[in-house]
Amino acid sequence: MGSILVVDDDPAVASRVAAALDREGFKPVLAGSGRTALAFAGRESPDLVLLDVVLPDCDGYELCRILRRNEATSSVPVLMLLPKGRSAENEDDPLLSIAGYLRKPVQDAELIEQIRSHLRRHASQEGLHLVTQLPGRLEFERHLDDRLRDGQKFAVLWVDVDDFQSYNERHGLAGGDELLRFMASLVRETAGEEGACGFEFAGHLGADDFVLLTSPSKAKRCCKTMIRRFDERCPGMKLYIVVVSNEQRAIAHRSEVAQIAKQLRRVAKAKPGSSYHFDKRRTAVQS
Fold it and tell me: What is the domain-level CATH number for residue 80?
């Protein structure tokens, strides 16, 4: 569930874009000004930025230049949103490195297609996550699609550190990166210990979202292992894991996995202490 930073001061446009992204399993983050966008980007790097050319406190192109000067966002894909009647500018400016342009009002299907295309291109260029050295969302989707296509039974473990943003603010980027590296080793080692058959996949989907793809018979053991090690390393913090499987319900598309996980995460976040939660329903996915 990659995070998409949507920078637009029009609440109607921002809300519609956020709804479209949310339906596809992305994590939209809304910013109505350049200052708000930079504040978020200073805390955690988004996977992609949708940037309106016209903002109340700065020019969209200037904001893009600032993002490019920040090491954490220097290579993040930026899609510019152009108002009707305005032409693209600075297309050849190497300091901007704009991934593409979308003209308002953009249709949801085109928006999602463009985002996926540029994320896929970025992943092929960047490979592994800079901090955790784990593959990202697109590689995870490829593995999940393979299992769906082949009719294999699977369990997806979505692993989250509760309130990571506050931790990042208290301990700074260096402290946040250290925690992310620990989380990466946690899911990687768990996958390695369980992966004698080569089925396990460990990935980092962005921000504090990690994922482990395994077989249903191993899911509970993986959850217990990760929670035990996390609680030993991070006393006073909370790790929650939600597990989505096609063992008891039919799942036809990866978007259903994301939707089920989203529902489970609401429950998991409300529970005290580290915990894991399985989807045990047999009914169809409901939004």
Answer: 3.40.50.2300
The burial of 112, by beta-carbon neighbours within 10 Å (0-12 exposed, 13-18 middle, 19 or more buried), is given as: middle
pLDDT of 197: 45
In which element (H, E) is residue 203 found?
Answer: strand 201-206
In the chain, how many domains are there? 2
pLDDT digits (tens, 9 = 90+) for 116-167: 877 876 765 555 776 788 887 778 888 999 999 999 999 999 999 988 877 8
CATH code, domain with 145: 3.30.70.270
Query: How far apart are alpha carbons 4 and 6 in whole angstroms?
Result: 6
Rounded-to-integer distance, Cα 96 and Cα 54, Å? 16
Q: 83 near 54, Cβ under 8 Å? A: yes
Identify the CA nearest to 60 among candidates 7, 3, 5: 7
The answer to whether position 29 is within a domain reads yes
Domain identity same for 120 and 147: no
Asked if 257 and 152 sit in the same domain, the reply is yes
Query: Is the confidence at residue 95, as pLDDT, over 60?
Result: no
User: Residue 205: phi, psi to the nearest 5?
Assistant: -90, 0
Residues 234-240 have a mean pLDDT of 94
Backbone angles phi, psi at 223, to 5 degrees: -60, -50
Task: Read off the amino acid at residue 227.
Answer: I
Report yes or no on 284 lying in a domain: no
Q: Is the pLDDT of residue 253 over 60?
A: yes
Location of structure tokens 């489970």: 264
Percent over 70 (pLDDT), the chain: 88
251 and 119 co-located in one domain: no
Longest dimension (CA), the chain: 58
Pair (145, 242) in one structural domain? yes
- For 182, the domain range is 137-278
Is a pLDDT exceeding 70 seen at residue 115?
yes
- Distance, CA of 166 to CA of 164 (rounded, Å): 5
